[in-house]
What we know:
It contains 11 helices and 15 strands. It is of the alpha+beta class. Among the domains are: 107 residues, Orthogonal Bundle (Helix Hairpins), CATH 1.10.287.110; 75 residues, Urease metallochaperone UreE, N-terminal domain (HSP40/DNAj peptide-binding domain). α2 runs antiparallel to α3. It is elongated. The termini are far apart.
Amino acid sequence: MAKRDYYEILGIDRNADQATIKKAYRNLAMQNHPDKNPEDDQAAEKMKSLNEAYAVLCDSRKRGLYDRYGHAGLEGYTPEDIFGGVDFGSLFREFGLGGFGFGFGDSIFEGFFGGRNSTGRGPRRGADLRYDLRVTLEEVAFGAEKTIELSKAEKCLACGGTGAQPDGLVDCRRCRATGQIVMEQRSGHSIIRQITVCEDCRGKGKIVKKACKECKGKGMIRKTKNIAVNIPAGADTGCSIRVEGEGEETDGFPGDLYIVLGVERHSLFERHGNDIYLQKEVSFTTATLGGQVDVPGLDGDLKLNVPEGTQTGAVFRIASEGIPCLDGHGKGDEYVVLKVVTPTNLSPREKAVLRDFETLQQTSGGDNHGEDRKG
Length: 375
């Protein structure tokens, strides 16, 4: 089901300022809060939509992405990314809605957003990685499996990524284990609220007192790993292969690995889409009299019939001998561009034969097919 427009959810104009956005959210939250609508089974879902709309539109960066690209601009954002910058608990207390009394658990995020950890910060997804892989034309023509060696940061197994010994973590006193510092300042009837990541614990809510001996307190260890990669038949330069879960790790889910292909230049073939082009030299005699020649193909030599009187630059198509289509339906063609080779270092007898041929051409007025037509 398509998601509703955030401005429509809050009932505001797209040019609304922050004061208008907050006012609209407050009014709707007062109307739809589950505590005020205990008989309404849809109250929680309505609040989820309101909270999401407000979390996006009250943040200039997220709002800018949404205004420009719509919901697609926020693809890849986790719930933590969407809601992490808004202290809904303080907002509801300001609205007189009773803090976290929603009947869904002790935390607003447990009720509305699927749960958070005790620090008030959910696990963050690790960074994606890119690996540029050079492949041959044959490998993308037939598909292949390659193994790459990747160096990346992984969680320290000794400490589970905490960076501390088993008894080496303590709650951060500055943020009271929330990972955030909330600053509030009243100005008349308004409250200015600023939420920042705690500098002491870097948003984790915990401080390492006894560092892990394996990772020296970092929580991560760089390791080299061999990863098998399947190259699909039909791939081309710029194609990206996603390997799920092989990106950088953090305190949450690992990112993904994107392998970007670069097809090496071939010594014989030139690729254009799914078609390949080859230049083939033929003798003066074959081009003049016609004949059959062998031409290289991606899967071995192919036979090409050269018609009588072929000129340099003539192009011939060999159907379905090119690159497979990436979707598995059909193949491209092979195009052979002929180049007639002028003979050199001729013997006196060969030269004499050619002179006789030239004389015959002149005698017949340049029409070497005249006798054939007379039958």
